[in-house]
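Lab notebook: predicted structure, single chain.

Context: the supervisor wants predicted structures on file for every construct in the current expression panel, including those that have not yet been purified. This is the next one on the list. No modifications to the sequence; it matches the entry in the shared construct table.
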Amino acid sequence: MQPSTADNHLFACRLMLYVFQHDGPPASGPVKLFTPIMRTYRNIYILAISAALGGCITKGENVNNESTLNTYPVLQLSLCDTVLHKNYVADIEAVRNVEIRARVNGFLNKIYVDEGQHVQQGQLLFTLNDEEYRSELAKAKAALSSAIAEAKGAQLEVERVQLLVEKKVIAKSELEVAKARLAAVDARIDEARSSEANAATRLSYTIIRAPFDGYIDRIPSKSGSLIGEGALLTSVSDIKEVYAYFNVSETEYLQHTRANKGQEHPVVHLVLADGSDYPYTGKVETIESEFEETTGSIAFRARFPNPQSLLKHGASGKVQLSNEMSDAMLLPQKAVFEMQDKNYVFILDKSNQVKMKNFVPGARLANCYIVQSGLSAGDRVVYEGVRNLRDGMKINPAAITLDSIKAL
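Prediction complete. Output recorded below exactly as produced.
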């Protein structure tokens, strides 16, 4: 293999340096090759050769460095349209969920359903001991019958007194007294009828039926238990449809409102507790009128169909809101590093030298940031290996695209 030009120059410089560094034969010889004046010229020449030698070496090193530049993947930033997905923790509630409570005191006579059972509207659920309430109803009916009988006697008395008054046998005031007694008896009839109706109603409360189609929740009491008025017997949930309640910050609320302007009920998705996607989409129905002072958030309510009864009252999940964004600048998270709570990337100049640059991220996608400020379309950003870079380093860029990154 032929030596390179740089190697030839280096050899020549070293040879000349060796020659001029020696004074010649030993001092005992008859002739000295170097006089003092010649030594002065020799030293000057040595310095010149040393400088040339250094130049030769440096030139060789530069040639070697240029040929060993490391290659890094580089992405050129551009604007594109994208969809921003954001998940919010949601509480799931049945559209209709009713607590079944006892409306009278008594012993729980019988339970006709089981926990988790689906029931139809009007189906018998519980019965309470009704002996006491049957007695109250019978007593009320007797009081009503007595009042009706008394009213008949009072009516006959009014008719009798009226005849006597017409014959001027007794004073007219006696007739007024008789009519007043009849009115009092009629009032007692009304009272007795009210008491009878109340007793009948209380008796009906000993039979508890399902208010609508739904599923039975936990039944805390057992047959034979003494139940107080207002005690919880169970709950019934209609889960053909469910509500998902979730809170959104003021900034995100404004973004969502602007992005979905003109849509009456924006479509949302639900992610279940195990991370799987719920197969049916929902719609945002209502937004509360006020922000919470403590959290600065506002509550959304979305309605989801639940034909398979997969979602239960009291479950949890994540509602996913989707907002379309135009002219968004996407930056892979892998290209970003942090210093002192700030975000940086390495960008390339025209000579392929890297420079550290700060930027402000906006929203965050699965593996990308949406750049809010600090970077511009057309900037070339080092995608991978940023921990090995320093300001001013020169690299060999290998162009990649955002689509190729997403495909990984």
